[in-house]
Write a structure and sequence with these properties.
Chain lengths: ~140, ~325
């Protein structure tokens, strides 16, 4: 258990939230423990962004993008899924637990799902011990 | 000169004399018997220094991307080097028709780290028979079974034979046991998170950021590596914990679907840092998730380049 709200970095594809209310919520009402990084497409998320989030002390990383066949750039999400999924498995190999990286692939019809998925992620992360592995810049100083 | 060396010398001399290649990449004697050096022969009269043995630790394919596509390159290749050449052709780093490979079925490389750790550095010569390594000092000679000195990558090597060499010298070897690499990855994965992380830290923290592992790898041919990038600076470039860990994580990850399991990175490391436990994990995942093994031919794109809509069912909804 951790005694603070888990720090979550949300990488959000700017096209994946079809409902204006959901996008407005993300843009203006994200809880302070969730840090938003908006990207033009999940395909633009370099694994180094994820690594920097992790090394910066993120307890979890969420990646939200469009479903297959709904990518604004046709197939950015397909490449992203292969790479980022493998990267999450790879981080797990060296001790950063696999369930700290989560994807939410959103459908045209989804309403309020991003809020629900983030809340669930936060609840799951709260049950895990503090993430020590790989964090090197927690609190702004090096270990 | 061994029998294999004379045969290779004759073959290479012919290629150079007949002007079939512009350069022939192989090895030559160096001051230390432990480290024969890569050599770039352009005339057959330079071959007096030629050497080929189990201490020729480099993966020579690493030099291919340094040449223009039009250069006609000759090379002596073991199984893993042949696979590296294949994959470099897939990645358009050279034209297959401009590479002439003399293949040698591989007995496995002697790991100089293991040799030095066990026998010191004072040896004046290292010779070999099929299953034995003979280490000579000024006043005595020691024999050791080859198996005990092989590099870990060679111990678990599956494809020691060159797959698509233009000529092959020597008898083909039996294929290796593919479960060996898998078992090692599985054993590491079975440790708990804290233990895996502790191992990772213990290895990464000795790194001096010399980048010998990068220079040794045939797939590390980027003209500007992410660690050398100034704007944006992707990661700390010093030997800080964040910088060292990022280097080890990302260097290995950039080889996902591109690594031929040659172990040249690990052999090049002056700090004896283990790193194939990282690349072998990725290789194993590429095999199980995508049925892909790097370098088996010179056409098939690696998984990260070959995504398509059939991936639909891989998305967790
Ligand atoms: S991995 Fe080792 S045994 Fe296998 S071909 Fe390469 S050098 Fe030879
Ligand atoms: S990462 Fe290491 S084992 Fe893999 S191809 Fe490069 S040098 Fe060889
Ligand atoms: S060769 Fe070894 S010490 Fe040098 S950068 Fe690579 S891992 Fe670090």
């Amino acid at each position: 258990m951790i005694d603070h709200k888990p720090k979550i970095i949300l990488f959000q594809c700017q096209w994946c939230l079809y409902s204006a209310e959901d996008q407005t919520w993300v843009d203006t009402q994200l809880p302070v423990n969730i840090h938003l990084v908006k990207v033009p497409c999940t395909g633009r998320i370099n694994t180094l962004y994820v690594l920097n989030a992790v090394q910066g002390g993120a307890d979890g990383v969420m990646i939200s993008g469009c479903l297959p066949e709904q990518c604004h750039f046709k197939e950015g999400n397909l490449g992203a899924r292969r790479q980022l999924d493998q990267f999450a498995d790879f981080l797990d190999h060296i001790g950063y637990e696999r369930n700290r990286v989560r994807f939410t692939w959103l459908d045209l019809q989804d309403r309020g799902r991003i809020q629900r998925d983030l809340a669930q992620f936060e609840a799951d992360l709260t049950k895990m011990p503090k993430s020590e592995a790989l964090a090197t810049r927690v609190g702004g100083h090096h270990d | 000169m061994t029998d294999l060396e004379s045969k290779l010398t004759a073959e290479i001399a012919n290629l150079l004399d007949d002007k079939k290649v512009d350069v022939f990449i192989a090895f030559k004697k160096a001051e230390s018997p432990l480290h024969p050096q890569p050599a770039f022969f352009t005339e057959s009269n330079q071959l007096g220094d030629f050497v080929y043995n189990s201490l020729c630790q480099n993966n020579l394919a690493a030099f291919i991307p340094r040449y223009p596509l039009s250069a006609r390159i000759g090379m002596v290749v073991r199984g893993c080097e042949n696979r590296a050449v294949n994959h470099l052709v897939v990645e358009k780093q050279h034209a297959r028709e401009n590479i002439f490979m003399i293949g040698v079925p591989c007995e496995g490389l002697v790991d100089w780290h293991k040799l030095v750790n066990r026998f010191g550095e004072e040896m004046i010569a290292v010779d070999e028979a099929k299953d034995e390594i003979m280490i000579s000092y000024r006043d005595r000679q020691i024999r050791a079974p080859r198996q005990e000195l092989l590099h870990d990558s060679c111990l678990r090597c599956v494809h020691p034979n060159p797959l698509s060499a233009d000529v092959t010298i020597g008898e083909l070897k039996p294929e290796g046991d593919p479960t060996l690499a898998r078992t090692e990855v599985a054993a590491f994965s079975a440790l708990d998170n804290a233990a895996r992380h502790a191992w990772f830290r213990k290895e990464a923290e000795r790194c001096i950021r010399c980048y010998a592992c990068r220079e040794a790898c045939p797939m590390c041919y980027c003209t500007e590596c992410f660690v050398d990038h100034g704007v944006p600076r992707w990661t700390e470039s010093t030997v800080s914990p964040a910088g060292m860990r990022a280097w080890h994580i990302v260097r290995a990850f950039h080889q996902a679907g591109r690594c031929v399991s040659c172990g040249a990175c690990e052999r090049a490391c002056p700090m004896d840092i283990k790193m194939t436990y990282l690349t072998e994990k990725l290789n194993e995942d590429m095999r199980t998730k995508y049925q892909f093994e790097c370098g088996m031919d010179d056409k098939t794109q690696p998984p990260f380049a070959a995504f398509n809509l059939d991936d639909k069912n891989r998305f967790e909804l």
